[in-house]
Write a structure and sequence with these properties.
The chain has 94 residues and is of the alpha+beta class. It has one domain. It is 56% helix and 19% strand. It contains 3 helices and 2 strands. It has helices at residues 3-20, 55-64, 68-92, and strands at 24-31, 44-53. Strands 1-2 form a two-stranded antiparallel sheet. Helix 2 (55-64) runs antiparallel to helix 3 (68-92). The protein starts with a helix and ends with a helix.
Length: 94
């Protein structure tokens, strides 16, 4: 099989994994003073994830907030352009 085909598989896998995975997560922990009166002597309360960020969710949130220009700009510059550039470099052999 040609090298170009393998390159397209790698680019496609990178493209798919980028939008499935979360880029960042905001977690909340509360650190208590010692002897705060909790059973078991717990000093840290883990309250879980507050919000998760991904490129897809960010663009979707911007679109729902009617910030269309920014949503399109982020989608194009972060989602489309990197892969377009890689494909063009491979096709043009730069």
């Amino acid at each position: 099989m040609p090298k170009f085909f393998y390159s397209m598989i790698v680019v496609g896998a990178g493209y798919a994994s980028r939008y499935v995975a979360y880029a960042a997560t905001v977690k909340l922990e509360v650190r208590l003073l010692p002897n705060a009166g909790l059973e078991g002597g717990a000093e840290v309360l883990h309250l879980g994830n507050l919000f998760k960020f991904s490129l897809t969710s960010s663009v979707k949130d911007m679109w729902q907030a009617h910030v269309y220009v920014l949503a399109v700009l982020v989608a194009l510059c972060s989602g489309v352009w990197p892969y377009t550039k890689l494909i063009l470099k491979k096709v043009l052999k730069l």
